[in-house]
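Repro:
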Amino acid sequence: MLLPKPFPWQREVSTPWSPVERSARFLTSNEDCEKCAVSWPDGRLLFVEHGRSPERRTATWQDRLTPVWKGIAGGCHLNRPIAQLIEAAGFRMERLETGYMTGPKLMTFTYEGCARPA
């Protein structure tokens, strides 16, 4: 069964907190992240995202499984280099922590941090 797109929490809002709420979906499209940097030039982007593991073997399996995973998980990517995507979209990192959460390594390497438009 495919999950619906967009997810219920992926909504447009017009409040000062919009950049934070949009971070739940901005990596669906790097264009969304770039719009966020332009729309709130004095804001902060708080994010918690799972993504590409720094371990070569795990990353190789993430690459292999992502095409199937996207189909069953609503477009979710296991192998996105989150920090690089955020910086490429015009942000600079203020704080970044990475590590594995409890669970399968393929799905649990997490990036958590804060970034501001560069």
